[in-house]
Amino acid sequence: DEYFLFENRSAGGYDEGLNYLIYDNSSSEVVGTNYTGGIAVWHVKDILSSCLDQNNCVVLNPPLLDLEEANDADLDTASSNGRTTHLFYSVNSATFDNSTTPSSDLYDDNSSNISLSNISVAGDNMTLTISK
């Protein structure tokens, strides 16, 4: 009932609207037309049906869906428009596994043994190695 979802967020299409909403690196300046995207790593706790029965989906800890921020992990502790450094790409953070921060550990702190490595530069087409 728990897994990771990897998503390529590129600068075109739907994400083009992020150009003036997402911050550039760790600054307070919007990225503008320099947004190139990256890999979003979503940590999913797939228990929606059981929490709906108990009417407590909003207050669950751990959350049902959480973005594993590659750097600048401020989404969990403060309001943020998001940063380019939240995404995984070669210049920012090119590895996600059980030994990185954030890690690919499960919510109960057991190892998932999921590993992303060799993440390429951000762009419409990205490459990476997924292993378990």
Quickly list its features.
mainly beta, about 130 residues, about 5% helix
Give the SSE layout:
Blueprint: E1 2-10, E2 37-45, H1 48-54, E3 65-67, E4 115-117, E5 129-131
Antiparallel strand pairs: 1-2, 2-3, 4-5
Give me a quick take on this structure.
The chain is mainly beta and 132 residues long. The protein has 1 helix and 5 strands; from the N terminus they run ββαβββ.
Portion of residues in beta strands equals 15-25%
* Main pleated-sheet profile: 3 strands, antiparallel
Give the H and E element order.
EEHEEE
Strand order of the largest sheet: 1-2-3
Classification by helices and strands: mainly beta
Evaluate the radius of gyration. 15 Å
Give the uncertain stretches in residue-range form: none
Notes on the structure:
By secondary structure, this protein is mainly β. The protein has one helix at 48-54; strands at residues 2-10, 37-45, 65-67, 115-117, 129-131. The strands form two sheets. The chain has a three-stranded antiparallel β-sheet, with no helix packed on it. A two-stranded antiparallel ribbon has the order 4-5.
